[in-house]
Amino acid sequence: MRSVLNESGHEAIWYLTNKVMWWRRLHSPEVKRQLRIFGDRVRYQWPVLANSLSPSSVVYSFGIGTNATFELGVVAECGSRVFAFDPTPRSAEWAACQRFPPQFRFIEVGIAAKDGEIEFFAPAAEDDISYSAYREDGRSSGSVRAPVRSLRSVMSMLGHARVDLLKMDIEGGEYDVVREMARDDIRPDQLLVEFHQGFYGFTPDDTRQAVRTLQDIGYRLFWVSDRGLEYGFVSSNAGTQAA
């Protein structure tokens, strides 16, 4: 009971803290679309465009931590193949204890602008799972080295010519990946990103530039979370029906 109450208490504090931070919201949706929301709690909820995914769809989710309720919701409701990625130890330990459905695959690799191995700094709190390649005040002095691949490299490794939905919650790494997508001409139909202005030294201008980059390559913003950090984009080339 204590752990349930603690979890509920943390969730309530997180929700209230972020709800009052509406002032950091930099953008509003450009287009209106019908949505489905997946995820068991507010902090893990993300949108999917209605009728956009099917059993033939490929979904990539980078940085799942220890909560896969969004990804498992997509599997259950859409039947899509979901590939979840996280190279950090707390996530890997958690995933090893789970029983995932056949359409769900967990891979211990991160995403970056290029292939290699990078240092991830551990969070200060034991119950926090958000490792980051960017160090900030208050972070633990501990770190781990873990493998990363570019998006194109991951697609090649898995034999995928396209990705229908890409989700990234990667603690500051999203800015480099957005630039890589623009350079490599990779255009998932839907893109879900948590930006980190105000964290790890990133500024509102960094997020504004990333959004402009995505708009320049044909993406339109269809959703922004209440706290103003999570964004949903749709490609102008996306089909209206699942393939």
Name a few traits of the molecule:
single chain; 243 residues; alpha/beta; Rossmann fold; 7-stranded mixed β-sheet; 3-stranded mixed β-sheet; 6 helices; globular; disordered N terminus
Structure description:
The structure is a single chain. The protein has a single domain, classed as Vaccinia Virus protein VP39 (Rossmann fold). The protein is built from six helices and twelve strands. The protein is α/β, with parallel strands linked by helices. A seven-stranded mixed sheet has the order 5-4-3-9-10-12-11, with helices on both faces. The protein is globular. Strand 3, helix 2 and strand 4 form a beta-alpha-beta unit. The longest helix has 18 residues.
Mean pLDDT across the residues is 87
* Percentage of residues in helical conformation: 25-40%
Q: Which class do the helix and strand fractions yield?
A: alpha/beta
Tell me the CATH architecture: 3-Layer(aba) Sandwich
The biggest sheet, with number of strands, parallel, antiparallel or mixed sense and barrel status, is:
7 strands, mixed
Q: How many strand segments? A: 12
